[in-house]
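Can't paste images in this forum, so I'm doing it all in text. The chain is below; anyone willing to post the predicted C-alpha cells underneath?
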Amino acid sequence: MGKGDRRTLRGKLYRGSYGNSRAHKTNRPQPHLQPPKQAKGERS
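Text version of the structure:
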C-alpha cells in the first residue's frame, strides 16, 4: 500500500486523482443537515 495504490490517500495524491479516499467539500446544501420542512397549513 503506497504510491501505486489507487485506493489510498497517498495513491490518490501521487496520481492526482480524486475519489472516495480523497473527497472534496461541496457547496450543495446537505439535506440531512437542514431542519425538516413544514407542510402548508401546518403550524407548530
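The CA atoms of residues 18 and 25 lie 12 Å apart. The mean pLDDT is 80.
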